[in-house]
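Hi, here's the filled form for the chain we discussed.

Project: internal
Contact: R.S.
Residues: 410
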Amino acid sequence: MHAPRRFFLLLLTLGSLPAAAQEADAGIAVPVSITGGALYTHRMQGDNPAAGPLAGAFHASFSPSLKLSAHWFAYASLQLRSTPFYYYDAYDADHNIDFRTVQAFLGYTRTYKSTTIVVKAGQLASAFGSFPLHYDDADNPLLDQPLPYATYLNIRPDQVACGAQDLVQGWTNTWQSYRCGGSQAESYGLTPVTLYGLPGIEIDLSSHKLDARVQMTNSSPANPQSLLSGSQHAQWTAGGGYTVVQGFRVGVSAFEGPYFDHDVAALLSVGKTVGDFPAMGAGLDVQWARGRWSTTGEWQWFHFDYPNLSVSPTASFAYAEVKAVITPRIYAALRVGEQRNGRVADQWFSQSLEPSQQAYEFAIGYRPNRWQLIKLGYEWLRTSEVPGTRDNVLGLQYVTSIQSLSKAWR
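And the returned structure, exactly as it came back:
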């Protein structure tokens, strides 16, 4: 479900808490989702050869929403998980506890005839693409995330490569390092689109079959920063969609802005600043549902302006997801994704940024009741760098949704 529509449903939910107080002007709801999981994969052995292939994990999602009046509301999404939990976590053999404030914002909504406007300010999910709001395991029919939201590109925003060869061959063990300077911290590169929040403001508009959104944030979706960071750069992201017929929607989105950390400014050529090297993204998304079938898909293209290169990095991603309800309690889902990378070049060297890859994920879901979901899935990852099945993953999740703790007043 896309961002504007999801929040309109949120407001409707708040407006009906509980049945005895349907006319209440204020109320609070706190949905909770808890997931226990297990992974079987050899990905962790790439980071630590002594690591075993089996890992257990948990994930808890808290989504408090507060209706303050007929027009004002607040919403947050708080995520607590152990790692590895998602499949892309498994490339790191370390076991940690991770807490994220994915969203935490104040909102204002008003409806004029058939047009609804929502204004939000705070920590916001990126307005780019259509997947970032699927961070609830009960909402995602599979276990992993699509490639553009979970893949690391060979680009570090806190270091500068001397040239194309340095950028392509900058791997040290399992992390990225360049010769021309920058941060000494370990890093896997950057993910084109964050699944986590960005500080900013957003305006959503919905009228008849059209929806649109414009977002201004403090940093790029490819390199999110906190409000205390010294590497903040104003960014814009915009998107919109059109519902062709009931159940069939087509959307577009785009973003642009600087993505380098402020610390690399001293490593750039005289007269250049980090603002001269923006990251750009463009995307197309489609959702369709009818009867027991539902599908969604995205195509995304990214370009990262880069110093010391005549041809800067580009990457494109596409995935399609299909879900079929077999019985009221059982469904099957399949996601097919592909990543293709453009070449990088300087006057001496030219090569693809990194090998292309394909991902195929299949899952079966079973609902013992409306509050519980069991998912069993398997992912095949194909790349020329990793032979055989070492990067494949077998996963199991047990998701429990706790009835919303709610109270209405006034």
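Let me know if anything looks off before we file it.
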